[in-house]
Design brief:
single chain; mainly alpha; transmembrane; 20 helices; 446 residues; membrane
Length: 446
């Protein structure tokens, strides 16, 4: 089936929708991370024991990751049944609603233990939403992209994620300037309330995007799969395991954005909230440029080598970054933060949407990406809680946290080394067997 004329030019539209939608979606997700490290221990938990309050607050950050595998099963199923576009719209609206509700919650001082319970419920909704966002946006851009530029176009999804994190950081830089009384009473709520505008803007951007030619052709010829999960586990179980292992690389992001922020602003180090938020802002700004560059390189030399640079390099540079925080030298923290998160981590972060998505065929691609990544991301989300425990009662054992982070980079390395290289495989042949000689249609077995 030929691609209809009206679909011509959609790659750029799909990439733009993925970037903006992911930026808006992950703005919501990342303002929670900043608040969990800086605000929520004092607002929703018993601040008479700061260490325990911080631990519990960081645990609520991980709750969304625990909900994500469940959301991935649901959203992955319907994404492969009804299309990528509908899931992209649904996830955006759900994230906007749940984030707005967090800004409306009563505090512990007002309703007692009910406050953290309500916080966790809203966080679960955020997790369900995030479960389908990156998988649907990545599938949409991959299936619209020219075969020789899939890495570049799909990287816009993660570029949007970093953009959302940058916006969230800048917003918290503004509210962090408020006196503590105003910050803890109403100031922290403003970024969450702004999610209404986020959801509305994202909806109008995404509603005019066309469904992908690959999905439309699949539905018109062979038809959609009734039970994508069954087909996925029967034909792609090894790739699902690779994606789960590969998704553990996200631990680098959660340790950098949440635990390191809490550690640096603790009494033992004494960095100010604003100065550390600026480290994240500059690192994300560099990542916005680095991600498409790494992705473009993967279109030339392959997904595996670029991904391995990011995974191995992150294990090393995160150790250096946490060491820099322990020294209290802001210049070192800033430079190594930019190198670790803005440059090195961006290699793996920019290439995984194409690397993972190319492992699966069109009929189960969204399910494979959603389920595989969200199980791995669930571990990454709770990496922050584990790090808080590993750091000891005073939260200063940064070297143990660095070793823990490095250990979580090992499974992604193994996953990449055992995966097939797919950057030269035509889009219609992705997920077929054998792939070694899949440069022509004749190589596909009947």
């Amino acid at each position: 089936m030929s691609v209809p004329a009206k679909a011509v030019g959609q790659p750029k539209k799909a990439a733009t929708a993925a970037w903006i939608g992911s930026a808006l979606e992950y703005y919501d997700f990342f303002i929670y991370g900043s608040a969990a490290a800086l605000i929520f221990p004092k607002v929703f938990f018993d601040d008479s024991d700061p260490a325990t309050a911080t631990l519990l607050s960081l645990a609520t950050f991980g709750v969304a990751y625990a909900a994500r595998p469940v959301g991935a099963l649901f959203l992955g199923h319907f994404g492969d049944r009804v299309g990528r576009k509908k899931i992209m719209i649904f996830t955006l609206l759900l994230m906007g609603l749940s984030t707005f509700l967090i800004g409306c919650l009563p505090t512990r001082g007002q309703v007692g233990t009910l406050a953290p319970v309500l916080l966790v419920l809203c966080r679960v909704l955020q997790g369900i939403s995030a479960a389908g966002e990156q998988a649907s946006a990545s599938s949409m851009t991959l299936e619209h992209a020219p075969a020789d530029r899939r890495g570049f176009f799909t990287s816009f999804t993660l570029g949007g994620t970093q953009g959302g994190q940058l916006i969230a950081t800048l917003v918290f830089l503004a509210v962090a300037q408020l006196p503590d009384k105003q910050l803890l009473s109403w100031g922290w709520r403003v970024p969450f309330w702004a999610s209404v505008l986020v959801a509305v803007a994202g909806y109008f951007i995404r509603r005019n995007l066309q469904e992908t030619p690959a999905f439309a052709e699949q539905a018109a010829t062979e038809g959609v799969v009734k039970l994508p999960l069954v087909v996925l586990l029967r034909e792609h179980w090894a790739d699902v395991l690779r994606v789960i292992a590969g998704a553990l690389i996200a631990s680098v992001s959660t340790i950098f954005t949440v635990w390191a922020l809490a550690y640096a602003t603790s009494d033992s180090v004494g960095m100010s909230r604003s100065s550390m938020l600026w480290v994240g802002a500059f690192a994300n700004l560099v990542a916005l440029a680095a991600i498409p560059l790494w992705a473009t390189l993967s279109d030339r030399i392959g997904r595996r080598p670029v991904y391995l640079i990011g995974a191995v390099g992150s294990a090393i540079t995160m150790f250096l970054y946490l060491w820099a925080i322990s020294t209290g030298s802001y210049a070192l923290i800033l430079i190594l933060g930019i190198v670790a998160f803005g440059v090195v981590y961006s290699a793996a972060n920019g290439v995984w949407p194409s690397f993972y998505g190319e492992m699966f065929s069109t009929r189960v691609r969204l399910s494979g990406m959603a389920i595989g990544t969200q199980i791995g991301f669930a571990v990454a989300g709770f990496a922050v809680t584990f790090a808080a425990q590993i750091a000891g009662p005073d939260g200063t054992d940064w070297s143990s946290v660095a070793l823990f982070t490095a250990a979580l980079c090992v499974p992604p390395v193994v996953a990449a080394l055992t995966a097939r290289e797919t950057h030269t495989v035509p889009t219609e042949l992705l997920g077929t067997r054998p792939l070694r000689d899949a440069s022509t249609p004749e190589s596909v077995t009947a």
